[in-house]
Specification:
Blueprint lengths: L2 H13 L8 E3 L5 E4 L3 E5 L4 E6 L5 H9 L3 E5 L5 E6 L3 H5 L13 H10 L4 E2 L1 E2 L4 E2 L1
Antiparallel strand pairs: 1-2, 1-7, 2-3, 3-4, 4-6, 5-6, 8-9
């Protein structure tokens, strides 16, 4: 794993509490991100995160627009809405729908997420109180 990818993992670990650590995944390049029921959250800069909201036209997106300051919103042909949020809003965004347990890496949900986002979703190995790539 490159230094850049280690830096991204540390950025994610700083942004969320251990309550959500089971939501951290990586892709085939080793880039770390968070997967919830409705979105992918990934570090963009030291102060912001990018978000891909999978069900962009849902009422939940309207609630997010109302409750969280989002920036630079755009939608692709698959209905995925992408936007940027500040680090302080990451846990609030996760609360909109997260899995209580890690989803199965070969399950239907994982395959659908991979199809929509266009990259692999690989579970991170959990060490003692820390994640390892």
């Amino acid at each position: 794993m490159t230094v850049t990818n280690n830096k991204r993992l540390k950025q994610i670990n700083r942004r969320i509490s251990s309550k959500y650590s089971h939501l951290i995944y990586k892709d085939e390049q080793g880039d770390s991100f968070i997967i919830t029921k409705f979105m992918e959250i990934f570090p963009r800069t030291n102060n912001t995160c990018g978000v891909c909201f999978i069900r962009g036209n849902s009422p939940l997106m309207k609630d997010i627009r109302r409750d969280i300051a989002i920036d630079g919103e755009w939608e692709d042909d698959n209905g995925i809405v992408s936007f940027t949020i500040e680090n302080k809003d990451v846990e609030s965004l996760i609360e909109y729908g997260y899995h209580k347990h890690r989803f199965h890496k070969d399950g239907r949900f994982c395959k659908e997420i991979e199809r929509l986002l266009g990259h692999k979703v690989i579970p991170m190995k959990i060490g003692k109180n820390k994640f390892k790539a």
